[in-house]
Amino acid sequence: MQDDAIQADHLQRFIFDNAAIRGEWVQLKKTWQTVKVQREYPPAVAGLLGEMLAAAALLAETVKMSGRLVLQCRSDGPVSLLMVECTSEHTLRGLANWDGDIAEDATMQELLGEGNLAITIENIDAKQPYQGIVNVQGETIAEMLEMYFAQSEQLQTHIWLATDEQTAGGLMLQQLPDQDPEQHDENWTRINVLAETVTHEELLKLDAVSLLYRLFHEEMVRLLSTTVLEFSCTCSRQRVADTIKLLGRQEAEDIIAERGFVELACEFCNTHYQFDPVDVAGLFSDPLNIQNDSDTLH
Ligand SMILES: [Zn+2]
């Protein structure tokens, strides 16, 4: 049990007792491995996806919601879609679509070209989802997100992200409102100078306590709550049934005639859902007919 708890992916929240700044640290291993294994991602694409996954975990924790936060990047570049989501149940999933051969050292600009990143917060209590959009810009996912925060005039935010084969990790610092603006800026600058020394290696290999001590041992850091995160997919047989209904009766029957069944796979988790001719007939049956049929049984 103890081992599982230590190895579980988690996010650590912290604040500075000597500055109006809060922070989050996240490291995803099992979750990242599960997302990555669904497709044979070229390394450069996997790099972007892993960073987006860590970013979604960091951002979701800053939002009070009952629902999900989705980061979706659409572009005219070789990576046409990058999408990750983190739910209020602390589950994550994600995928990327790409075309052609991708150079191992391809940059984010080369991969994404012209495009935009949408940040959507779907709250089950809200009628309309919140959505913020930023153009693809900067050299990294972290820079692009920082530009989003700057442009949406939210609290000043600084993000560091890193990915390798095993781990997706991230660190975030965010300003909190403070009554003393001058002191506030000084604190923000000083603590960010310390944080800027963080390396990818440290983000991926050190645990939260070691990293925070390594960066901020001269400051007064207080650890707050820890959140356990895991991969989970929200797909279901019912959702696939709805998709088949959207295809329409004729198309579904054509597929049955050709293959004997309709099968769809979830793009996030690779679960295959198969519908045989009886299932498909059931999807398109008129409820009134069922009623009539059961009447005749009596
Ligand atoms: Zn799924």
Automatic annotation (TrEMBL):
Matching Gene3D superfamilies, A to Z? helix hairpin bin, Hsp33 domain, HSP33 redox switch-like
The name under which this protein is listed is: 33 kDa chaperonin
Modifications the protein undergoes after translation, according to the UniProt entry: Under oxidizing conditions two disulfide bonds are formed involving the reactive cysteines. Under reducing conditions zinc is bound to the reactive cysteines and the protein is inactive.
UniProt-recorded Gene Ontology molecular function terms: protein folding chaperone; unfolded protein binding
Chief location of this protein? cytoplasm
Signal peptide as annotated in the record = none
Q: What species is this protein from? A: Methylophaga nitratireducenticrescens
Q: Cite the SUPFAM superfamilies for this sequence.
A: Hsp33 domain, HSP33 redox switch-like
Q: What biological function has been recorded for the protein in this entry?
A: Redox regulated molecular chaperone. Protects both thermally unfolding and oxidatively damaged proteins from irreversible aggregation. Plays an important role in the bacterial defense system toward oxidative stress.
Subcellular location per the Swiss-Prot or TrEMBL entry: Cytoplasm
